[in-house]
Amino acid sequence: MQLPKGESYKFTSTKNISMSALLDELSSLDFNGYVRLTVERDDNLEDGYLMLKDGVVIGAEFQGEKTLDSKKALDEIKSAWKVEGIVDVYKFSDFQMQISLEENEGTLLSSKTTAQTKKTESKAEKKEEKAPVEDTPAAQPEPVVANAPPISENTPDESALAQDIIDKRSERLALLKKFGMAEPEDDFAEAILSGFKMPSDRELNTTSRELKKDIVKKVKDSSKLDEFDLYISPAVLNDTVEFRIEVYIKPYNKKIEKEVQSTIESTLKEKLTFPYEKGLSINEA
Amino acid sequence: MAEKDLLLKRFVGDFRKISGVEGCVITSSDGAILASNVSGSVNEEELGAITVFSAGIGVQLDTELKLGKLEKIVVEGTDYKIISIQSGPIYVGLSTASNVSVDMIGNEASDLAAKLQEVV
Fold first, then answer.
1. Parallel, antiparallel, or unpaired: how do β-strands B33-38 and A33-41 relate?
2. Could you identify which of A17, A165, B36, B115 might form a hypothetical disulfide with B25, taking C-beta atoms 3.0 to 4.6 angstroms apart as the criterion?
3. Chain B residue numbers touching A194 (CB-CB < 8 A)
């Protein structure tokens, strides 16, 4: 699997927690991230990866003698969990989750619906029995996704999501090919991403003021307006900064609206060096 | 102990997957190699010795000049780097190409040290 590192959430061993107990815990948290299991069998290190979205296992890969994907990998991970090994759980931000989905479509289980049903059943059983969190390896219950259904049981939404991921990757590869470029390696991409420094509140306020100044100047230079009011409210989200921009203009018509929108977008692109999103509304003053 | 061995083996294996890393060793403070994963061109015993030796110089500089806490020693040539990191009870040594990010490796080493404290 091609996965960002993420933030370390839990580090334990297979003798301390069963696979089902861990997955139950993560499902109750609507966890986004992945579980990495490392075991040694026949003097070989083997790695199993389970990718989770909203607490549900959506992808699996097993790197052992052979590399296995999705359902086969999941079965192998269940089997490997019986051996003494180490378990790492890493948490993803929304952005990291999105990248992981795009990069690993080949490992997706496409079994969300039944997995979620099982998850609910499992929770209900837990409430009744009040089972301990830690199980002995010999008495492991079936994991949450153990009986994943065939792909054909997907809901239309899930199929569309999976298709969307495949399309986006194909588009990107075609674009890279067109310009004779190779896909960057993971460590290179990670080094670039780790270089992004999100601005502090103070820097953000300064940036907003400068943005406003630049946009006002550019709009006044390019469009003849009787009135022009601009309000920028920045907000730091997980991996991005959201700029809510409200504009009031007079006279108001579609042509001027387009000009103003284009000026604002080009200024944001030119001035901002960190990941950002914008919410723009242009109204009549 | 099995967990510790697994963690160390996985760690050196992970580093060897990074483009440009030719060898990775983990040693104890007396230079004994705890885990290694090196390419044919790297001698793990030599890399282990260099790692502990250079980290020792760093510690001595720190002490003599009262510079603060030592993080890592980087010996950089035109086309290579030797990176030596003291992280908790262990020393991590890497032989790499010149374009490998020292910061990324330092972060991973800190991560390993934190996990080692949980299993040792």
1. unpaired
2. B36
3. 103-104
Subunit contact B3:A11, Cβ cutoff 8 A: no
Q: Options 3.30.450.30, 3.30.70.360, 3.40.50.10700, 3.40.50.360; which CATH number does B2-119 get?
A: 3.30.450.30
Task: Quote ipTM for the complex.
Answer: 0.78
Helices A254-271 and A201-222 cross at an angle (nearest 10°) of 140
Q: Nearest by CB to B19, which of A47, A86, A185?
A: A185
Task: Kindly tell me the burial class for residue A92, based on how many C-beta atoms sit within 10 Å of its own C-beta (0-12, 13-18, 19 or more).
Answer: buried
Closest partner residue to A45 among B9, B103, B111, by Cβ? B9
Q: What is the pLDDT tens value at each position of chain A, 285 positions in all?
A: 888 888 889 888 898 899 999 999 999 999 999 999 999 888 888 999 999 999 999 999 999 888 888 888 999 999 999 988 999 999 998 888 888 888 888 888 874 434 443 444 444 444 444 444 444 343 344 444 434 444 444 566 666 777 777 777 778 888 887 777 777 777 677 666 655 667 777 778 888 888 888 888 888 887 778 888 888 888 877 777 888 888 888 888 888 888 888 889 888 888 887 778 888 888 888
Chain A residues 133-192 with CB within 8 Å of chain B: 185, 187-188, 190-191
Separation of alpha carbons A252 and A2, rounded Å: 49
Tell me the C-alpha distance between A285 and B113, whole Å.
Answer: 60
Q: Which CATH superfamily is domain A201-284 in?
A: K homology (KH) domain (3.30.300.20)
